[in-house]
Amino acid sequence: MHGMEFLAGYTYSKAMDNASGYGEGINFLNPNQRSLSSFDATHNFVISYDYQLPIYKLGSNRLTKGWTVSGVTRFSTGLPVTLLETDDNSLLGTGGSGPIQLPIDRPNYAPGSLDFTNPRSRQPYFNTSLFSFETVGQLGHQFAEGH
To answer: Is the whole-model pTM more than 0.85?
Structure first.
């Protein structure tokens, strides 16, 4: 289009590792355990645009030349969320170290629908009944179907 330029890009990706978050530790009981990276964004669409405003047609002086509207817009999926417990029920003493003290303890998870809700509501954002405290002396785990 006359006076309009744009550039668009789309990326589909999946990033996995065993500890990419700031302060996350590797589970030393299962060092091969992997999940989505803390920077994973499956869908990423970016468009940049520049439009030269036609006000130069009003006159040819310095005031009306070179006016543009430009910008960059990005749409992407959200970043993964890491759930953890800070109570050390695993009795592993993994209170964390470094600038952010994150343990490796995690809650038990029973499969089911997370039933996401509007984050602006005063209700929990997802179905919290699927999660429970880990058993003392064990790391949290995913329950088998039917339990």
So the answer is: no
